[in-house]
# Entry
Amino acid sequence: MTKIKINAINVSGTVPETFTIQKKEHYLNTKKRIKKQRPLMVTLEGPTCVGKGFTVKQIMRTLQGLIQKLGLRVKIISFGKMIRDLLEKDQGFYELHGPTVLGGDLLPDNVAIELFTKAHRRIRRSKKSDIIIIDGFFRTIGQIVWGQENGFIQAGDIVYSLGANEETCLKRLAHRNEKSREKRQDGDIAKFEKRFNDHSKTVGELRRRFKKLGVKTHIIDANQDIAEHIATTILSDLLPEIFKILKT
# Structure
């Protein structure tokens, strides 16, 4: 785990007795500033074709007023889209990992973690963020453990676990194939079924691990309409957290 050190002050420890009052105040303010700098991490978890990406779009559409008028800073890591872009544009990545992804399997944890870290680093370098919404990562226990050890998941963060049956996800797959121009690696039935079944086997343990870490884990009935139910349910829960952030 990376340890943060600023001006030779170890911000993870207690205030040394030898500090003057002025230095103690600076020490405590430094701790507060670093804590404030960490954005709230919000993860959408769910099976393939459940509608995570569309849900994020609906959430962002609703939040535009707060973003424009009150300066709320929201960033998105769309992990699935990032992989699809790499498969399309990076020949080396395609040769190394195309057979895995196109066969319906997840990327190995070490590869997925490296990609996520790079995406997160780009966000943090560009502008400060109040909230980072993650779509498509933390899909294995290994990724969750790594996230906790490296500060990407901690108590107080939020996970919305979208639960839907196979029939619902198949309908959304058919709708996406009909309407979307984007070629998807899970666009045929065989790959869909593999990914859906793999998720069904692991989702219970993923939820338990999130809860064990103190992450606020909400199970959303994703069989209902995305815009009218899923996105609005998430926003109803998320808005109080947003207002807390805007007050600080």
About this structure: The chain has a mean pLDDT of 84. The CA atoms of residues 50 and 169 lie 5 Å apart.
